[in-house]
């Protein structure tokens, strides 16, 4: 069974959604709270800035929004890794999300370099 190919807008949205779904399953501890809050912010910003980049006119704003989206993908990796250190049972799901964030970061870098 092959993976469905998603366009980048849908991938960024699904990444943010999958981060939120995972966070709902994590134990509610004070250590998780701040990292979870930051992950929700950064993962949502990946999608929001990518979508805004494609809705705005002008190359300067396009590149600016893409750079923010790429930065937020890097931030998401950081917050996912911090959560991984605290929550051993979620290693596989967290590792998948780290990989997805890194792939999004690479794709965004390629788009920025080509524009």
Fold blueprint:
Layout: H1 8-25, H2 30-55, H3 59-86, H4 91-114
Rg calc: 14 Å
Q: What is the helical fraction, as a range of percent?
A: over 70%
Largest sheet: none
Helix-strand category: mainly alpha
The total beta strand count reads 0
| Count of runs of 4 or more consecutive helical residues | 4
> What percent of residues are in strands?
under 5%
> Quick one: overall form?
elongated
Distance between the termini: 35 Å
Question: Keywords, please?
Answer:
single chain; 115 residues; mainly alpha; 4 helices; 0% strand; disordered N terminus
The gist of it:
With 115 residues, the protein is mainly α. It has helices at residues 8-25, 30-55, 59-86, 91-114.
Structure explained in plain terms:
The protein contains four helices and no strands. With 115 residues, it is an all-alpha fold. Helix 1 packs antiparallel against helix 4.
